Amino acid sequence: MFGSIEGMGYICSDKIIVLPLTNYQHMKKVSVIRKTALRLFAVTVMAMMVSGIQAQDNHPWGVMGGMNFTRSSAKDITSSMGGQIGVLRNFRLGGFDDLQTRLEFSFAESLGKKDTPMENALFNRWSLTLPVLFSTPINLSKDSRLRFNLGPYVQYSFFGQSRQPLSPNKIRSFWHSSFGNKFTYGVQSGLQLEYQRWLASLDVRYSLRKNPICASCDPGREQMAMFSLGWRF
Length: 233
Fold this sequence. Notes:
The protein is mainly β and 233 residues long. Helices cover 14% and strands 57% of the residues. The chain is built from 2 helices and 15 strands. The chain has helices spanning 22-49, 179-182, and strands at residues 4-6, 9-11, 16-18, 61-72, 77-78, 80-94, 97-112, 122-139, 144-163, 173-174, 183-195, 198-207, 211-212, 219-220, 222-232. The strands form 3 sheets. The protein has an 8-stranded antiparallel β-barrel with strand order 4-6-7-8-9-11-12-15. It is elongated, with a radius of gyration of 22 Å. Residues 1-13, 15-21 and 49-56 have low confidence and may be disordered.
């Protein structure tokens, strides 16, 4: 019997058997997301290792931590507080701009509004985030400068808890969603004030991908405002 593969089906000598596309399309989408995340991570690591890129000054590294304010575009979801800590590094690109990379560990939580079908819903996550920001520094004085930062980020939520809406016993359960639901990406912008070795940063993130708040909830795009203080070394 002779056969050849064409798309997601194959042709036999007497009939054509067509396989369903649903699982294939889902696996292909997840594969594209994984490849995008891995490529961006690889580019960032390579940039940090290349010796030809010069550090912006004598203190290119930094540690920072602070709090965040998170909301989702999902229906009947309210805002909540969280926090983050991380490290950063500045690189000189040449000319007037720098490249700032960060690796942050954060906690964020989304809650359902009271007196709505989403009441008592909860979805929290512990995440690793990798922003790659183009940074424009402006010297304010001998000891201080202001940075305008803008660029993409990728984020992977490796742990979290969820609670279904209108749950009578309000029990939290650990969620184990697919890779695609744990991964998101978007745009980050912010201002960073540096004084000697101290720094203060105000940033805003906007997710370009919708993620579910809980198993039975509609997905939404996450918006996060962050305030951090840090020390350069």
